[in-house]
Design goal:
Elements (H helix, E strand, L loop, with lengths): L1 E6 L8 H15 L3 E6 L9 E7 L2 E7 L12 H12 L3 E6 L4 H12 L4 E5 L6 H12 L7 E4 L2 H11 L5 E3 L25 E6 L8 H12 L7 E6 L5 H10 L6 E5 L3 H9 L3 E4 L8 H8 L3 E5 L14 E4 L2 H13 L3 H11 L6 H18 L3
Length: 379
C-alpha cells in the first residue's frame, strides 16, 4: 500500500504529534508499505525551501518557510501538497491535526479535491477551539467531505462527534507503543538508591497544560500525611516551568522528597522506571498519554485524573488509581504509600498484563480505517 502522511509537526521536533506520526510511519514501512511523509517542519532551525530526504525507510518531503517565530507552517502548503500527491499517487492520505496545525488543515481540501481516500486524526484536546472549528464548518461544511474522521482517544473524539453528528462516524485510532522496549527489570524497594520509599515518577514537559506545579502541591500534601521517608518523587523533564518547580521544592522544604533531574534520555527513563513504583499523570487535558502507558508497560502503577485521555485505558484499583480532583490524587499517593498490599498488587498486575497499545494492534486498526476511507470516495 502507498501511504502518505500529512502533518505540520515532524522530527526533529519531539512533541506528541511529531513522534507518534514518525513511529507510525516507521512501523508501516517495516510492515512492507511504501510510506511518504509531507511536513512543514524544517530539518534544522532556519532551513527553508522544499526538500526531500529519507529517515530509515520513510521518504520525507519538507516544506519549510521563513516564518516569524520559526513555527512549522507554510503559506503555500496546499499547492506543494497537491504537486507531491500527484507524484506519489498514494492509496490513502493520512492527515494529522492538533489545535493549531494550519498547513495540514488547509491541505485537507486539496486531498479531497484529488479524490484520494483520506483519514484525518485529531491528536489534541480542542477545548475552546471547538467553537472555532464548528464556526468554520458552518461556512465551508468540511464535516460533509468524504473523509474518515478519527481521534486518538474518546476525549479527543467527543468534540469532533459533536460537529460531525450523524453525517459521519468518528473512529478512535489509539497511539502505538513498543511494549517490549519498556519491559525493564525491577529493582525492589530497599535495594534502590532512593531507599525503601515508594518511588513516584513522571516524564513530562514542565508547562501549564501538564500541571506539574499542581502535582507538586499534591506531593506536598501527601508527604505531610505519610511517615518520613515513605515517599520519594522524581519528575523528569524540561520546559518553561522547571525553574518555578525547583523554587517550589526549595521554598517548601521538599528537597529530601522531590528530585527534578531535568530532561532524561529514553535509556535514563528506563533505568528510572526499573527502580520506581508509580507513574503520576496529573494533566486533565491529556489527549492520550503515551508516557503514562510507557510507565505502565514498565510495570508501574498509574495515578491520574479520571477526566483525562490516559484514564480511558485504565481501570481504577486494577492497574491504576483514578482521581476526580487533586485531592483525590493526594489520597491515591497516601493509599499507595500506606495501604498494605495495594501497591504490590497493582504493580504485579501491570508486570504480568501489558497495555493494549501494541503496534501490531494499532496497525490493524489503522489499516481498517484506510479501507473504510476508500469506500467513502466511491459513494
Amino acid at each position: 500500500m502507498r501511504i502518505t502522511h500529512v502533518t505540520d509537526c515532524y522530527l526533529p521536533l519531539l512533541g506528541g504529534i511529531e513522534t507518534q506520526v514518525a513511529r507510525l510511519a516507521e512501523q508501516q514501512a517495516g510492515a512492507g508499505h511504501h510510506v511518504t511523509v509531507i511536513c512543514t517542519t524544517p530539518e534544522r532551525p532556519g532551513a527553508h525551501g522544499v526538500t526531500t530526504g529519507r529517515i530509515e525507510d520513510v521518504t520525507v518531503h519538507r516544506l519549510a518557510a521563513r516564518v516569524p517565530g520559526g513555527y512549522p507552517v507554510h503559506p503555500r502548503a496546499p499547492h506543494h501538497v497537491a504537486r507531491l500527491l500527484r507524484g506519489a499517487r498514494p492509496d490513502v492520505v493520512h492527515l494529522h491535526m492538533g489545535v493549531l496545525t494550519p498547513s495540514t488543515q488547509a491541505s485537507l481540501r486539496t486531498v479531497v479535491r484529488a479524490g484520494l481516500p483520506a483519514v484525518l486524526t485529531v491528536h489534541s484536546v480542542w477545548g475552546g477551539a471547538e467553537k472555532a472549528f464548528a464556526a468554520l464548518d458552518r461556512v465551508v461544511r468540511w464535516s460533509r467531505w468524504p473523509v474518515l474522521w478519527s481521534a486518538v482517544s474518546e476525549l479527543t473524539a467527543a468534540p469532533l462527534r459533536r460537529i460531525v453528528g450523524e453525517r459521519g462516524d468518528v473512529a478512535v485510532l489509539h497511539n502505538g507503543l513498543d511494549l517490549d522496549a519498556w519491559r525493564v527489570p525491577r529493582t525492589e524497594r530497599g535495594d534502590r538508591m532512593e531507599g525503601a520509599a515508594v518511588h513516584v515518577v513522571a516524564a513530562t514537559r514542565f508547562a501549564p497544560r501538564k500541571r506539574v506545579l499542581p502535582l507538586l502541591e499534591v506531593v506536598r500534601a501527601a508527604a505531610a500525611r505519610v511517615p518520613d521517608g515513605a515517599l520519594h518523587v522524581t519528575l523528569g523533564g524540561d520546559g518553561p516551568q522547571l525553574a518555578q518547580a525547583r523554587r517550589f521544592v526549595a521554598e517548601h522544604g521538599l528537597a529530601d522528597v522531590v528530585a527534578l533531574p531535568g530532561r532524561l534520555t529514553t535509556t535514563e527513563l528506563k533505568r528510572l522506571y526499573a527502580r520506581a513504583d508509580v507513574f503520576a499523570a496529573p494533566a486533565v487535558e491529556e489527549a492520550f498519554g503515551i508516557a503514562a502507558l510507557e510507565g505502565q508497560a514498565a510495570g508501574l502503577a498509574v495515578v491520574t485524573r479520571s477526566q483525562s485521555g490516559v484514564a480511558e485505558r485504565l481501570t481504577d484499583g486494577v492497574d491504576a488509581l483514578l482521581a476526580d480532583d487533586d485531592a483525590g490524587l493526594t489520597e491515591a499517593l497516601v493509599r499507595l504509600a500506606t495501604e498494605d498490599g495495594l501497591l504490590d498488587r497493582i504493580v504485579a498486575r501491570n508486570r504480568d498484563v501489558q497495555p493494549t497499545a501494541s503496534w501490531s494492534t494499532v496497525l490493524i486498526d489503522v489499516e481498517r480505517a484506510y479501507a473504510r476511507a476508500a469506500t467513502l470516495t466511491t459513494r
